[in-house]
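Notebook B, p. 112. Complex prediction, attempt 2.
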Amino acid sequence: MQINCSRNLSVMTAPERIRVSCGDCPIRHRAVCALCDADELATLERIKSYRSFAPGTTIAMAGDDMRHLSSIVKGAATMSRTLEDGRRQTVGLLLPSDFIGRPGREVSPFDVEALTEVTLCRFERQTFERMVLSTPHIATRLLDMTLDELDAARDWAVVLGRLTAREKVAAFLASIARRMAGSQGQTGLLVDLPMTREAMADHLGLTIETTSRQIGALKRDGVIALEGNRRIRVPDLRLLMAEAGDDSDGGLLV
Amino acid sequence: MQINCSRNLSVMTAPERIRVSCGDCPIRHRAVCALCDADELATLERIKSYRSFAPGTTIAMAGDDMRHLSSIVKGAATMSRTLEDGRRQTVGLLLPSDFIGRPGREVSPFDVEALTEVTLCRFERQTFERMVLSTPHIATRLLDMTLDELDAARDWAVVLGRLTAREKVAAFLASIARRMAGSQGQTGLLVDLPMTREAMADHLGLTIETTSRQIGALKRDGVIALEGNRRIRVPDLRLLMAEAGDDSDGGLLV
DNA sequence: CGTGAGATTGACTATATTCAACCCTAGTGG
DNA sequence: CCACTAGGGTTGAATATAGTCAATCTCACG
């Protein structure tokens, strides 16, 4: 479990003990609490707790008891499954506002690992479950988020099942570009990749080598430019999306 | 769009006009209405309508307006996406009690096609949406079903991304065996396949030929036996599941 | 009995994997 | 200050797996 300083950790620090008021929360309007009114927010404020994880560390292992349900406030994590012989498949990329866990289940079906420094806003499971039952605003929002994730998971099935290696890589980069859109220079979109080639490969159902080769090919063809290993420039997002084998604008997101 | 009589349609009949009372409904305790009490059921009874589709026909096309949300009462259908160049990936196999559509969206993101004769129990979308908001029993059940489907979709991502062709076919047959478990003879489990090799291939991210070859290989190895093209006998389900590359009992279902 | 869709089989090919070597960069310690 | 190290990344050659193309089989149905 090496500590790789993705960007914001030049010195290894103890996890910061953040405590943000819900009103100032960066994911206030996108997370599971998005629809909550002032009263409901006050309740959440009382029962929430924060916890941080260093890059590369495990947030939950498949089979673990889930004592908490959480929202990602900051950072990126993966949800994955590993087969007995070591093959691994990432089944979800978790970004700020994404929800971890589900009401009514105590055991995590997947491994969850921090890619970068991750901050979670956590609720004790049973407390939250009670709150879901009594708070339609939360139940409704949770249903909506879950339906969105289901659509995304199904879109991803098309990527895994039918796209070529080049198309897979292009689809992934395009989806990251959309979700993590960095600075929009006149030279194009700057996108920080929150993960190694290995994590990308696990997400795409490819090997590291194939992933690397396809990134190289997209670079050679001018579809992307690299700025170090963890950052790409996308001169023309339309071009990148066209490489993803689906010219429509719908679908194909993580 | 050929009509292939999978099993129960020796003569092509006009779709039967069934009308079951909710109390007698075969999916009463598994569908979106599972938690409803007598009053709620009475309301559903008033607003529901039935519609049947012949095998091979289209229930909804990607991009279509969804005027209704439905539960599958009988039969099997697929949800799939087709790329411009014709590549197709099935993203979900729909069986009795499964729900089609989602509150809050007017347009279907996928094609939905009947594999066998399908009977739907339908609700006009906006009426149902209002009912979801006012009926926690429905909202709760819908959330639970959606979370289950999300888990299944993620499990399937592992199949698509990391299993070999043989493992994919075994995983699929095992999942069907579990969900459609037919008669449990002393010679093993009898499983009716509700689909052609092509539909299987589309579900597994393989070609027809590879799918056929792997079925042949599993047969030669005694893991399965064929009784015609649409029915298999599974002498030992554990053996079949072991072929699916995941020896655990969890996960790996459609 | 002829037809046609679905299924199987074979030969060849393309694509991604495997195995291995090597590069690059940042951090470490002499 | 510079050599050393290690993790991540890239590249090349050989290989395996699934795809493609084409022929053939099967069987329910007309």
